[in-house]
Amino acid sequence: MRLDDVAFRYHRRGPWVLRDVTLSLPAGSVTEVTGRNGAGKSTLLRLVAGLRAPRRGSVRDRPSRVGYAPERFPVDQPFTVRAYLGHMAAIRRVPEDVIGTWAERLGFEHLLDVRLPELSKGSAQKVGLAQALMDDPGLLILDEPFAGLDAATRDILPELIAGRAADGATVVISDHQRCIEALPGIDRLQVSGGTVARLAPGEDPDTPRLTVLEVVVPESDADTAETKLRADGYTVRRPGP
Ligand SMILES: Nc1ncnc2c1ncn2[C@@H]1O[C@H](COP(=O)(O)OP(=O)(O)OP(=O)(O)O)[C@@H](O)[C@H]1O
């Protein structure tokens, strides 16, 4: 799927959250979205999922089956886990036995008859993941899926994600905790200053890129200038005689 020149703001006169976003998200790829708090990661994921429409630009070729797990699973619904997932399975026309399969895989079988508002944060997160994954979506979007998960589930999630991509799905994930960074072949995007940039493999968004600047000073000031620059944390190389 593609985003072309997408711009978005929540309110007509509000600040632009994202601008000039042009991206391709190929089938079979896993894309990690990074960026500081409030940068616009969740907003980008909502646009990709189709939960928000761009104010400008276009989103094309979105797969028809979309699985989306929000950052915070909305637990304020008066259903048991079984009833909620049963409802989601019916909407998506998948057999009800997928509920048991996912409950077992994600380790929440013992919670199927618990009401959603009574779930812990991590267990609610698992239910959110189960509903996103249950019909093998062609587009899987997970917003901070690792937050609050126990170690056992954290360990199997990268495998599940890689499995969806291997089946040809497009997978987009925001992941503060950098749990999927190690997946081979992952694409990485950084949201910053309202725009989205692709990160080179191995590039650390928290480490600024370096450049070389030549500074010309009178020879008699060279030692003072070097001392000042070093004191400011810059690396100084003096040419040989
Ligand atoms: N429903 C909303 N209505 C108005 N503004 C919103 C709404 N949701 C988010 N915003 C604003 O949009 C900007 C981007 O928020 P967003 O949640 O996309 O960031 P984020 O990168 O996912 O942050 P975090 O890492 O904290 O989850 C922020 O300034 C936020 O206040």
From TrEMBL:
Keywords, in A-Z order: ATP-binding, Nucleotide-binding, Transport
Region (Disordered): 221-241
Keyword Signal: no
Keyword Cytoplasm recorded: no
MF terms in GO: ATP binding
InterPro entries, sorted: AAA+_ATPase (IPR003593), ABC_transporter-like_ATP-bd (IPR003439), ABC_Transporter_VariousFunc (IPR051782), P-loop_NTPase (IPR027417)
Origin superkingdom: Bacteria
Residue intervals of the ABC transporter domain: 1-218
Pfam families: ABC_tran
Protein name from the UniProt record: ATP-binding cassette domain-containing protein
The organism of origin for this protein: Actinomadura napierensis
Lineage: Bacteria, Bacillati, Actinomycetota, Actinomycetes, Streptosporangiales
